[in-house]
Amino acid sequence: xxxxxLIANRGEIALRVIRACREMGIETVAVHSTAxxxxxxxxxxxxxxxxxxxxxxxxxxxxxxxxxxxAVTGADAIHPGYGFLSENSQFARMVEEHGFTFIGPKPEHIxxxxxxxxxxxTVAKLGLPVVPGSDGAIENVEQGFxxxxxTGFPVLIKAASGGGGKGMQVVHKExxxxxxxxxxxxxxxxxxxxxxxxxxxxxxxxxxxxxxxFGDMHGHAIHLGERDCSIQRRHQKLLEEAPxxxxxxxxxxxxxxxAADVVKEIGYYGAGTIEFLYEDNKFYFxxxxxxxxxxxxxxxxxxxxxxxxxxxxxxxxxPLSIKKDRIRLRGHAIExxxxxxxxxxxxxxxGTITQFHTPGGLGVRFDSALYTGYTIPPYYDSMIGKxxxxxxxxxxxxxxxxxxxTETVIExxxxxxxxxxxxxxxxxxxxxxxxxxxxxxxxxxx
Length: 446
What we know:
This protein is α+β, with helices and mostly antiparallel strands and 446 residues long. The protein has 3 domains: 100 residues, 3-Layer(aba) Sandwich (Rossmann fold); 70 residues, Dna Ligase, domain 1, CATH 3.30.1490; 239 residues, D-amino Acid Aminotransferase, Chain A, domain 1. The protein is 35% helix and 27% strand. It has 15 helices and 20 strands. The strands form 5 sheets. The protein has an 8-stranded antiparallel β-sheet with strand order 13-12-9-10-11-14-19-17, sandwiched between helices. Helix 4 packs antiparallel against helix 5. It is globular. The protein starts with a strand and ends with a helix. 49% of the residues are buried.
């Protein structure tokens, strides 16, 4: 087992990894920008190293600085968290080349799944259902228009190296196609340094269902059920729950087994998430994330399994500690992402926390790096915390979540907590009758 792990990230995920390591008897190193010198992770880690000024490109994306920090502190391994360098295959290779262990999958698997075209082709050959789409990259607007007319509008234009909704355009009418094509390609180039795009049929009312998978270096692969991530705004998740209120046990086992079989077939190890669109009782592969997800706590709540600790054990070469026949999904869990944003306009609201109090009680968990007096820097993602609750069933879980939100105190900045209370009161959410487009439509009506 590792003696010391460096966390190449910030915020609540850095703190989450520190907690797991401490319970495993592993020392930790927190790296930070000058803007994060007073961060909770920096305070709680065994050691800390400043790796650059506030902009992410000069600190949390600065590979030489991170590797230097690992070397000077004598770290054995590097955990990338999520975001930043977590799905950067070059970083994973350089970590290994410099004698450290990357707590994640092989670089070639990051490459395979990071290229959305290659990922789709790979999983289709292994039996996963995929959204009808182009066979490969779309080279020009004429080729794209030909595909759109053959498939039928609406269509979705997507960046091959994309994620988080960037480099993605939905086109409903022929006359809008050329402009949308150009915008998608430009966004892809700016955000990913790669303007390769492909196209798919746009599904009108799908759910976003993702399967949590785990593999090890000994040929074992399992799934830990699904998460329903359909409450979204501009392709960004706001709320996640597990299990999905619309899947049957038979559907869950079928798609979960297929996902685990793919992982085993390609020799993947570590944590990963295979994401699907689900419409009319059919699953369509969307993408695979080769890292831990923001919403991993909902799976932890219904399984009782520490996914970060399992990541670390697998990276150290140990077999999965989770046995397939012993996995039990118990009750229901929901996570709401708390962003430092105006709850009506969703505009960022950085600032200093003047009062902070977390909720408590049975089945309540609050993952955050906030504290009273902490100043939220304006340079990074606006998510400042996650409230996760567990109940015996979905109804109890929703009631508990509403109670926990009313107990939460975050003053000094605006947050999205009021928006979550509003969502939890909507009849469509309470009945489970919603899709990935529902929230944006409701916000327009509000």
